[in-house]
Amino acid sequence: MALRVAVVGAGSAGLISIKICVDEGLEPVCFESSDDIGGLWKFKDSPEPERTSIYRSLVVNTSKEMMCFSDFPMPADYPNYMHNSQLLQYFRLYAKHFDLLKYIHFQTTVRSVTPTADFSLSGQWDIVTVNRDGKEERQVFDAVLVCSGHYTQPILPLSEFPGHETFSGRCLHSWDYKDADAFRGKRVVVVGIGNSGGDIAVEISRAAEKTFLSTRQGAWVVSRMSNNGLPLDMTSITRLNNILMKLLPSNLVNWVAERSLNQKYDHRLYGLRPRHRLLDRRPLVNCDLPDQILQGALVMKPNLRAFRDSGVVFEDGTVEENIDAVVFCTGYKASFPFLPPALSGGPDKELTLYKRLFPPSLSKPTLAVMGLFQTKGPIQPIMEMQARWAVRVFSGLSRLPSEKKMLKVIECDTKRNSKSYPCPRQAALYVDYMSYLDFMAGEIGVRPNLLRLMLRDPVLWVKVAFGPCTPYQYRLTGPGQWAGARQAILTQWDRVTQPFRTRAVPEPESRSSVLFSPLLLVLGGAVITAVKSPKSLRIF
């Protein structure tokens, strides 16, 4: 009898989890608390409690070829960096193509997930759900995939700033932000320089009288575009670059990369330069922020220290008066209230996860938490690989180490990451993009064998070894092999260039080169003859 797997959430992670369960012969049942798929990428005009929320103008920071599902390329005419509405449309195409909607129970909330009485033998879970009519239902499942995301509990640190109680302006979190209309003609402070903070500060600065971006540490700012206007991740995330990064001294690589960035705009001059080196943390991806600073519409400031009646004080002692609003882009707290409290054994009561996926304390590895990680690369391919690995573990086709070994790995990973992320929580969350993908691929049996590929298919080997590490690489062989993976890799650059082909660009007129014109040849010959003749050296 097929294993029944509960999938909590129908966002991108939930959809891929359903599909992989079906592929592996499992029986998925997905519970989605809202009335639609998409999760984070489903825009709504007003935020709803306990749900994710995005702003109207949000555009992805990962190009379409790097973030697509590994066996379902995005349409060739899609832009390389999509608006959130277009990404949601891609999810709809995916769900329709693989007939996934029939497995989803919409407007059904998971209230609790608890081990059954015989969990040590069966590994099963007792799950209580509540549907749209308030009816409670209890079911038993063989495994659970948690895909509910962790952007539902905004962190609004007002208590850290004296004077906020009497501040006359408005304080809000980026979770509440939708567009800049409410800030037109006003003076606004944005706190935090993550990707959301950068986007929101830029957007508000186009409408506000003045916008201040307050940052504790600064950030290295990179554009979505690389050389020749190509997507940055397509040119930088390659297996060759990954090898070079491990072989070359990190100080040298940082120096070269930082020098290249500073040639575009000096990070020190612009007030952006952080304390950390470029490769130590994920950079801020924003094409417009330096330009807004150059125009004076956006002003960089140090960390916020306190509020005044109508103004704010920064750590350097400077004061800005007549501030109308302060937008906190200060992140989220991961919250899974339906899970057993015993799984939250971290320093701040956060989930402790082996390889950012499996709780090591479980006697039976039949629960996995998706998406709870940070990385410098695309998010989507990692979540897909997590789902593939988790399903293999549930089915007994892949085994985990002992609890002692898993805890040791967690400790070592956190210690290694603490050099770049002093905060223990952030250090525990970080994973190296390609190393993490290849590790999971090795556990599943889908990691590309470059030597074998070079001998059997040199053309494909060149694309895999030296080209972008697109998700199709993990469908070339092994479980879940996709017959279209090779062709998808060979044509990936065609889909990158397709959106640009909207105008026939005229070729330069063909003219004979001036270097080979008859007149120039005659004059050149005369000069050479004169130089060779001694008589030509006479002075008249």
Automatic annotation (TrEMBL):
Enzymatic reactions: octan-3-one + NADPH + O2 + H(+) = pentyl propanoate + NADP(+) + H2O; N,N-dimethylaniline + NADPH + O2 + H(+) = N,N-dimethylaniline N-oxide + NADP(+) + H2O; NADPH + O2 + H(+) = H2O2 + NADP(+); hexan-3-one + NADPH + O2 + H(+) = propyl propanoate + NADP(+) + H2O
Keywords (A to Z) from UniProt: Endoplasmic reticulum, FAD, Flavoprotein, Lipid metabolism, Membrane, Methylation, Microsome, Monooxygenase, NADP, Oxidoreductase, Phosphoprotein, Transmembrane, Transmembrane helix
Chief place of localization: endoplasmic reticulum
GO biological process: one example: lipid metabolic process
GO cellular component terms listed in the entry, alphabetical order: endoplasmic reticulum membrane
InterPro entries cross-referenced by the UniProt entry: FAD/NAD-bd_sf, Flavin_mOase, Flavin_mOase-like, Flavin_mOase_5, FMO-like
Keyword Transmembrane helix applies: yes
Compartmental location: Endoplasmic reticulum membrane; Microsome membrane
The protein's enzyme class: oxidoreductase
EC number from the UniProt entry: 1.-.-.-
Name this protein carries in UniProt: Flavin-containing monooxygenase
Organism ancestry: Eukaryota, Metazoa, Chordata, Craniata, Vertebrata
Gene coding for it: LOC115591439
